[in-house]
């Protein structure tokens, strides 16, 4: 019994520290071991008899699990997932009736929503949390929530409010004595200053947080802070330092993944561990790839800045050749801008390719994995159909309908992500079936023709062209009020020409570059990624013609 | 049917095989005689005497269901194949048909559809959807160039072929034309010979090439 009380006293505290890895990050080792063994014992029991989540204790435990999972995913950059877990945490927290946990979940949810630029949604959660923490006289919670709220205001450019909140938070800091709490506070203050654009100040706070984190050996936190520091150094053009911190962050990430994989995650008994592990490895690989690219880019930038300086000094010391120096500098500068642009293109292409690969994988997983399971379930239920009589029969039929709908839904999600036709049968088949699907809705007639396109194109070009057709047709459906579209794909020697013309209301072409939507931006960048050119002609009332040329 | 239909199931998911087995267990006319988790094993252990119908998945590691169907249909054209798949992309389905499988249903099927497909196929019919047939018409027309010399069909044979192309089974054709089931099968044999094809789907392709189902 004693252990249990201790357990509950301690748990909110640990989560407040934002430590996902509760075992390794903990300072209070003695106490912690006690808690942990209780936990382990309970867990072992559960593997044999899954317990219904009835009592408030179990709900609280679940909340804690979700909170720490949320934090871990957030640190690992998986923001969507982090948000999901924060939402789950709030749900379970409400069931546990533990006001402290509810407030924590709200803060977390607000913080993550803020991270996704969903400021208006974030604010109410943070306000609620702030109210609760103040009522509970929880100064630590109050400070962190205030800092997060300040970040939200800063992002919304309401600077006076943001500064006011930070000031009142700062005033409360001296009341906090525990190191872990100070670390968390420093981090949230740093984040707020980052949002406010006060990078030097942010760096100051993060450095102090990092020092405490290293002292406490709180790995997750170190990684988080290192990432924040890197971002801030990047903002003030200190690329060397930024690169160094990115490196630290990525190394720590590795360590944390190892720990997660080794079984700390087993503490979350509400999540299927195997699936989680597989996903984690997959994500680790992707994240690693992106990170290495980023570090490389930063190094290159750094080298270039160095070159730059050298050139400048050379030019000054050779007074006589000042003019030549200037010309030389100018040429290098132009070259640099060019190579920088090229690098950016390369990086963007890598991101796009990774994204498409990920889409294809998820689509396949959904379709072949989840769809397969549901189909098998339906088959099994269908076997019972004859044996069930009377009113219950409706239940069986309803269930089968539901499964059908679910499979249908999965199929259409998977198809939108990556049409199987595109991967296996090529661009022409994919556009044909896309056109067929639109024609079936009878809202728009799509005529598609192709010439000399028997040979398949490079995969990246096929994907680019398909996505562009998809995007343009969506635009036409949404805005053009057209009833007919002609799409033609022709290959002339080394050039593929795609023309799309509709008979809709047309629009002012000048507005393309001013539009905020990502639609056109996507189209342009995809085309430029594959060395293509695009030309848009439109007259109000006379439809739109789009010509896209891709060279080999 | 006096002797039950002997069925082989090929699917890389044991759970799915078990699902089909438990569905068919209660059917006296159907008997699952063998099951395999991959096409390689199925081909190696194929006992032609103990198999009338193969129910197979498409996406499997190694040899996939389409290749399996092609192999089987080229060596044992009379052995029936029903393909079950997660995909309903029309391209995929028409590829299944090109492999000359006798029928195709989506995996999230129910007992009724499964039984309907099995019985139709066992009665020399095919089981595809209309949309797939119309895509096939276009595909088949494109490969028209290599068309072999064929002896002309009689009017009756043309009638029968037209109904075969519309996915009628032997019994259904017999009912429709007021002739005996055996007579239908004789006609079918003759048309197969004249068209120089071996399978029902081969016949349908022949019909498409020669414009017997232009009205789809």
In short:
The complex is a heterodimer of chains A (552) and B (216). Chain A is an alpha+beta fold and 552 residues long.
Report on this structure.
The complex is a heterodimer of chains A (552) and B (216). In chain A, β4 (532-538) and β5 form a beta hairpin. The longest helix of chain A has 63 residues, at 322-384. Chain A has helices at 2-16, 29-48, 56-75, 79-96, 99-115, 119-135, 139-155, 159-172, 179-196, 199-216, 219-235, 239-262, 273-317, 322-384, 392-417, 420-441, 459-480, 518-529, and strands at residues 445-451, 484-492, 495-502, 532-538, 544-551. Chain A is α+β, with helices and mostly antiparallel strands. The radius of gyration of chain A is 28 Å and the shape is globular. Chain A is built from 18 helices and five strands. In chain B, β4 (80-85), α4 (90-98) and β5 (103-106) form a beta-alpha-beta unit. Chain B is globular. Chain A binds chain B through residues 367-368, 371-372, 374-376, 378-380, 382-383, 385-386, 400, 403-404, 407, 411, 415, 419-421, 424-425, 429, 433, 436, and chain B through 13, 15-16, 19-20, 22-23, 26, 59, 86-92, 106-112.
Topology:
The complex is a heterodimer of chains A (552) and B (216).
Chain A: H1 2-16, H2 29-48, H3 56-75, H4 79-96, H5 99-115, H6 119-135, H7 139-155, H8 159-172, H9 179-196, H10 199-216, H11 219-235, H12 239-262, H13 273-317, H14 322-384, H15 392-417, H16 420-441, E1 445-451, H17 459-480, E2 484-492, E3 495-502, H18 518-529, E4 532-538, E5 544-551
Parallel strand pairs in A: 1-2
Antiparallel strand pairs in A: 2-3, 3-5, 4-5
Chain B: E1 5-10, H1 14-24, E2 30-36, H2 39-44, E3 53-57, H3 65-75, E4 80-85, H4 90-98, E5 103-106, H5 111-122, H6 130-142, H7 155-165, H8 170-177, H9 181-195, H10 200-209
Parallel strand pairs in B: 1-2, 1-3, 3-4, 4-5
Helix pairs in contact in B: 4-6, 7-9, 7-10, 8-9
